[in-house]
């Protein structure tokens, strides 16, 4: 029986391999076989960790969420609109690491549309994300950057829409959407919001 | 050997079954077996039409493109901004039929990110779509609805981003994004564009 330290190290290896498969092939290409090949291990070993495809997908979602939550973040210069801008920059594929992360999440949309449990997870992810964006919109209203009449929920939904739709276009055309243009487009969107 | 008419009818049946599988499971769930089950036919019959998974996916893409191109369109009241609005309404999941279509295209993004040929098809789809949107933006500038200084390519990319990002949120939360709210959000986005 391996020592506890070995066990934890192996779990970390498995999670790392799962992430590499996700980054290369998305949730659609995630299989025990692909993870095993990535680890130069046997599928038999993997079934010890993941008795089913479902268990593998659940773990992959946890890995993707942890990676997303612990990644480096944009530093907002101030609350309100600058914080909203930073939060939206956080989801744009501005670096190779973020391209991989975006690619994983776009692939998750397909997986989630085909599975009610995963679909609910994605619905809740959106609810939480819009709530975080809404905090920045409300701060922007409080600071007089946006008009009192602004509906924070609507602006949060519009901002989320703009950012995710831009992500997809970038993934399919990185040459036409280099990081500088992504930022320019985001600033164009933000500056178009009606000002107080 | 079946008569030509039978052959064409069978091809139409196959395409219809392919579409139903796409609408229910997306490109990620598209298999010969699923199409055969949908037709109550044997997988053997299907291999006559599709010698490989690749051939099936190619045909499914053709079916999806044809369905998208021949669907009912919003009628624009005028060129310029009203035409831009109509073109963007065209991609929102406002009806059950359009929800299915959106679901298929979101699933295609994952398939296309994992396959260079399909990825190129999606890149080209975006290039063509932005070019169509750009025509409306240019008309809006020509009609004095948008400022002369507007960059049509940037507004086309922003509009495409906004619409597709909204599509994804709607698919995961139809109750929070009923058709009336989708339209309101789109109008909010359009009215935020700087006016001439």
Automatic annotation (TrEMBL), chains A, B:
It comes from Micromonospora polyrhachis. GO terms for molecular function: DNA-binding transcription factor activity; transcription cis-regulatory region binding. Residues 8-68 form the HTH tetR-type domain. It comes from the Bacteria. Gene3D superfamilies: Tetracycline Repressor, domain 2. Residues 31-50 bind DNA. InterPro entries: BetI_C, DNA-bd_HTH_TetR-type_CS, Homeodomain-like_sf, HTH-type_TetR-like_transc_reg, HTH_TetR, Tet_transcr_reg_TetR-rel_C_sf. Keywords: DNA-binding, Repressor, Transcription, Transcription regulation. Pfam families: TetR_C_6, TetR_N. This is AcrR family transcriptional regulator.
């Amino acid at each position: 029986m391996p020592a506890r330290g070995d066990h934890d190290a192996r779990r970390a290896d498995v999670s790392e391999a799962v992430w590499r498969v996700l980054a290369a092939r998305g949730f659609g290409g995630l299989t025990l076989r692909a993870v095993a090949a990535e680890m130069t291990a046997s599928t038999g070993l993997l079934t010890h960790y993941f008795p089913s495809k479902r268990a593998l997908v659940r773990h992959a979602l946890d890995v993707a969420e942890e990676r997303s939550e612990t990644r480096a973040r944009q530093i907002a210069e101030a609350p309100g609109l600058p914080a909203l801008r930073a939060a939206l920059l956080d989801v744009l594929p501005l670096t190779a690491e973020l391209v991989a992360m975006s690619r994983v999440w776009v692939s998750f949309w397909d997986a989630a549309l085909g599975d009610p449990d995963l679909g609910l997870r994605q619905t809740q992810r959106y609810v939480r994300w819009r709530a975080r964006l809404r905090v920045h919109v409300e701060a922007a209203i409080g600071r007089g950057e946006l008009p009192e009449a602004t509906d924070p929920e609507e602006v949060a939904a519009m901002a989320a829409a703009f950012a995710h739709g831009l992500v997809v276009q970038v993934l399919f055309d990185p040459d036409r959407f280099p990081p500088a243009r992504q930022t320019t487009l985001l600033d164009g969107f933000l500056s178009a919001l009606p000002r107080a």
